[in-house]
What we know:
In chain A, 44% of the residues lie in helices and 15% in strands. By secondary structure, chain A is an alpha/beta fold. In chain A, a hairpin with a 2-residue loop joins strand 8 (195-202) and strand 9 (205-209). In chain A, helix 2 (57-65) packs across helix 6 and helix 7 runs parallel beside helix 12. Mean pLDDT of chain A is 85; it is low at 25-30. Chain B starts with a helix and ends with a helix. By secondary structure, chain B is mostly helical. Chain B is globular. In chain B, helix 13 (251-261) packs across helix 14, helix 16 packs parallel to helix 27 and helix 17 runs parallel beside helix 22. Chain B is 73% helix and 1% strand. A two-stranded antiparallel ribbon of chain B has the order 1-2. Chains A and B meet through helix 3, strand 5, helix 4, strand 8 and strand 10 of A and helix 3, helix 17 and helix 21 of B.
Amino acid sequence: MEYKATLRLVYLRFIVFISCCVTTCALAAPVYAETIHDSVGTHHFEQTPKRVAVLAWELAEQVIELGVVPIAMPEVQQYQQWVVKPSIPITVEDLGSRDEPNLEKLMQLKPDLILIGYPQSDIKEQLEKIAPVLYFNSYSKDHDNVEAVIWGFKELAKLFGKQELAAKKLADMDARIKFLGKELQQAFGAPLPKVTTLRFANTTSVYLFGDNSISQYVLKKMGFNPALPQANSQWGVTQTRLRELRKVGEGVVLYFKPFEQEDKLRTSPLWNAMPFVKVNHVNSVASTWTYGGAMSIGYVAESLANSLREVAVKSTKIKLDKTVVMN
Amino acid sequence: MIQRYCFSLLLLLVAVFVYLQIGVDVAPQKQWRLLLGLESTSFSEIEFTYARLPRLVMAILVGLVMGLVGSLIQQITKNPILSPMTLGVSSGAWLALVIVNIWLPNLVADYSAGFAMLGAMFAMGLVILISGVRNLSGLPVVLAGMAVSILFGALTSAVILTHDQYARYLFIWGAGDLAQNGWDWVQWLLPKLIPLLVFVMAPRVLSLMRLGHEGAAARGLNVTAYILIFFVSGLWLESVVITAVGIIGFIGLLTPNIARRLGARTSGDELIYSALLAAILLVTTDGLSIFLSQFVSDLIPTGITTALLGAPALIWFIQRQFKAQDQVFFRLPASAFKLNTKIWSLMFFVLLVSLVISITVYRNELGWQFHWPNEFSWSLRWPRVLTAFVAGVGMAAAGVVLQRLIHNPLASPDLLGMSAGAILTLVLTTTFFGTSLNHFGPVVAFVGSLLTLGILLVLGRRHQFAPSTVILTGIALAALIETLVQFALIKGTEDTYAILRWLSGSTYRVEPIEALTLMVSVSIIFSIIVLSSRWITLISAGRGVALARGLNVNRSFVLLLMASALLCALVTALMGPIAFVGLIAPHMASLMGARSAQQQLLLGALLGGVLMLCSDWLGQQLIYPSQMAAGTVVALLGGTYFILLLLRGRMR
């Protein structure tokens, strides 16, 4: 299975490479014609799609970041509560749920392109009766999620003729993450602590971000190794008991908000007995969507950096206090 | 008796000792000193004092309460199969807590027990209203409990589905988890257990009640007042326990039965001994779940291990306790009508109207629209319309057969655990093999339904398919399976929502070819059932009659049961579980004057089809542009109708 997938990915990348070469040549020509690759194959477009309907949140994010306003997407309200950034223009129509988007409404809106993700992959045939469909499988156990969302972002940029914008945004993001990494490395000083991120399920169990999660990717890029490595999975999260966190030792633990029972956790003896809590190597991270598109990597980086900066300040204070006492 | 207690206490001590050693690296001597108040310093010592010990205390407390309340309910009602679980209490509390967590999250910390109590009381009140206060000793009250559980379950998943991100973390709680990380839950729970003191009075009152109400009244005892007090305090105790640790089934149902078997005769003895047994049982099962957690990466909540041990035990007890009840006769509800051509033509007219409406009337941005669908809309609508109608027919027919075979007008296909079997295999393949729900769904679900049916048949055979055994086995299986589904859901990934959506019974993803296949197969099975309606008539007249007429009762019973299960499996595999249609469509048919099995089959099928058709259409229009699954709508409609109907029957 995995071997096959890797092979397919290699194959796809090869095609992307070739097509990039082809498009660079084609740029000279005035007529728009693009060949776009998605998770299933190649699609030819004679003109830039104008009315795009997006059925998956991370893809909605991608096109909005590219400056393309979709005509419709599902669960607009929930997106505004959970994903937040980038915000959705009010003109975007609501299509109902992500699993069961309203097809009749979609038809009436007359899109000229429909973007779908994994949850809609099985209604692709029906959607193709409405408009051409591009399928981007962003999150899967069989590929690198970060590579997949960035690849999808670039393909979409090509489709909408926004390659320059996309390249600039990606480069800016890259530079920004590196900058944040340097800043944090300075703040912490050597040796850098190991960092692990998680969401709380309740006060006794957590979802750990591991391999294939955006959060861990960002941390590694900023120079921090995972304190509690977890095997690769579809969404990059593993559920486990609170007690497992003791293995973090004096590494850093960051947890994403919202977490309603924060106060309760702080009074828990077991939590307070954790080595990382004792040395103040723990902090919350502002509510950020961790299953998003390419640009969400940057948002995750900002939130993590803000949180880590606070941890660094606290721990240097402790170090300083210690030195003062010693003197 | 003293011997029995000594032995059980010893067992509890051993269980506690073993419990404290599993995965703990603090030596027993050190543990003892920690218990005596030594300050814990290392992490493992702190974990012992603040995670394992409170967990143990919690398990003992919860066990005691569950055993006590279970025994109390069983003694008051003289019904060995009643417990908060079978009375629908857990489903009520679960619904209430989901609502509070989603809409009033700031009240969760302080008032959740109160809300759980409200939900629990509401559910149990409904169940008792449905079966009648004087009818608590039989099987109908269990069926009523199941019906209310299904209704509340449908409501809960409708709420969760529309607010998935908020409800995500509730699943662990729903699966029953005893894990602690401090003493605060124990401190929270302890003062709320004060109503336990009321039960000091219980043994005297209950033993007097054994003399009968008159006898008790003659001794100057206000039986009703006492029963009310006991019930309310029992409910309160159960609600606080559910709030603290979530849903842990089976214990309250099982332990009083074990206690009686081991020789608990007087009511005081039974109460105390059940409580003791329940504590032992919960400590053991929780220890098991801690033990298992060491080997797998998944979270194993206590509710899972309890159900895994409890369900087989319950089935074993049922097998021993219930004998064939041949004296039950099928009673149709009284009807003011006589089934004549007028009613038939009216029904066909209604079918026609609902067909036209579901094809031509719909909502869009501009409001209500009424015109013939274009090609695209038609290609979307006809498979859904066909599936909904055929599913209704199938479930209704399955219901008629089942109700007549099992001699209980409250039976329905979902009660046999066949839908639950389909759900289980589906959920398990999705979570553990990572296949997409949408790709292999139907086949896998079908295998599950048939497996459950197989188990039912093997188990039922031993008692000549006595109705009570079949129903109770079905209920035990359904409860077990539900817990396993919760287990799969706590992973909380996106697949979870695909599963939940399938559980709500939607026609959205039905493809034309699937709709046609369903139609053909349901038509064939339905015709066979209609043709063999003589068997049904004979069996519902009683085993003796059927035997006298030369019918091979067991064989025809099994064949009919299989046909009914097959119908249920086909529908569930394609659409997901459809509740209540199998229960109310046959009932409505009788109300409209269908007397013979054949009439009831035909009219019931028609009614079931129309019901599903309307539900599917309503579900697509109600919360436009989102859609509600037909299964959810029909559960809400059917459940409400059913409860109103029973209440009206009670008023008369």
